[in-house]
What we know:
It is a single chain. By secondary structure, the chain is mainly beta. 0% of the residues lie in helices and 49% in strands. The chain is built from no helices and eleven strands. A hairpin with a 4-residue loop joins strand 7 and strand 8.
Amino acid sequence: VQLVESGGGLAQPGGSLRLSCAASGFTFSSYAMDWFRQAPGKEREFVAAISWSGGSTYYADSVKGRVTISRDNAKNTLYLQMNSLKPEDTALYSCAKSRGMLPSRAENYMDSWGEGTLVTVSS
């Protein structure tokens, strides 16, 4: 299993970024996928999850309404569209493969992780 994130960078407050996670080494379309983030000095936290088909999504309250998780099973790619960015969104964002088909917020239900892409929100 390989998960490779991209799309991070420096954004201004109120700006947008689109993160991508390229997946390989497993049948991407058979598993739910998640995004987590870890801010400096803080624990890793759940951001968003999506079912195998994309039909079900879940979001952390802190990002709900500003973030959209999506997937393209034909391209084996997971996305995270982030809008109305805030300085508190600054973190290392990692995608993770779930053990099953349905979305889960539980970190210990993930069995593979990418190395992450850094998002910095600052003026």
